[in-house]
Amino acid sequence: MAGGLREAIVDWYGVAARDLPWRRVGAGAWGILVSEIMLQQTPVARVLPVWEEWMERWPTPAALAGEPPGEAVRHWGRLGYPRRALNLHACARVITDDHGGRVPSTYAELRELPGIGDYTAAAVASFAYGQSHAVLDTNVRRVLARAVRGEEFPSKTPTAAERTLAESLVPALDAPRWAVAVMELGALVCTARAPRCALCPVADQCAWRLAGRPAYDGPARRGQTYAGTDRQCRGRLLAVLREAHGPVPKAALDATWSDPLQRERALDGLITDGLAEPLPDGTYRLPGTTTGSPS
DNA sequence: TACCCGTGGGT
DNA sequence: TACCCAAGGGT
């Protein structure tokens, strides 16, 4: 029965899969690693153009490692969570220095790289190297919550039971295809907001649908205000540094946010995080970048 | 563990 | 319009 679920989802993937550049033969482990980090909490549509630009500009880890970290932040653009750009740059340097320039192939080695957690390590080992791992992202968690457990949404963080279930579903043959197929189902059909059950290949065996799609009754799932937060302030400050082509006077940063206390706190945070660099003359820049560096 | 970390599009 | 949330990770 688990086999029936897997087979139906993998067959569906065969006809419904999107043609994404990092899935093509020849994307390479580096391209796949870059895509996975860019896709952390960020929709595919926004990642696509940035990934293309990165791959053209930095086709190998060594190419990125040869640049200052600030250039990675600059070309991250508006993807959000810019520390991921620093993480990728740090990955490139570790890969270049310690792995002979080749993206490591084992889960354990990948897991040691900065910004690579359980999901990303499993994803890269699977998609780049064909290995067999349980790949448990938000899409998979939602599909399994519904199809197997009969609940509309998974818990906030993965539970041991979820991992056990995900591992029990890893097929003996072609585990990466199962992983990408069930992720794709969650992304295109079994969506968080308005699931398209009419298009679902496992609608007839989905516990949640068979139970009449009962409404979620667990604890409140989120609640994030953004306006007025330090995050928004940091974003404003970093946008100025990104778009400038040289050191930025403090006044230009001050103009982005009215509350001076919060502004200073945010700027200090950016510096602490390595996303901004103060210069002796009182100006600021992206870390390691030089004046007039080409865009 | 709960919170922090950006951004923009869909509903 | 306001809110939800998107291939998470670090602390």
TrEMBL record:
Q: Which reaction does it catalyse?
A: Hydrolyzes free adenine bases from 7,8-dihydro-8-oxoguanine:adenine mismatched double-stranded DNA, leaving an apurinic site
Required cofactor(s): [4Fe-4S] cluster
Stored InterPro entries = DNA_glycosylase, Endonuclease-III-like_CS2, Endonuclease3_FeS-loop_motif, HhH-GPD_domain, HhH_base_excis_C, HhH_motif, MIG/MutY
Which key words tag this protein in UniProt? 4Fe-4S, DNA damage, DNA repair, Glycosidase, Hydrolase, Iron, Iron-sulfur, Metal-binding
Task: Give the superkingdom in one word.
Answer: Bacteria
UniProt-listed Enzyme Commission number(s):
3.2.2.31
Where would I find the HhH-GPD domain in this sequence? 38-188
Enzyme class, spelled out: hydrolase
Name the protein family: Belongs to the Nth/MutY family.
| Name this protein carries in UniProt | Adenine DNA glycosylase
Organism expressing this protein natively:
Sphaerisporangium aureirubrum
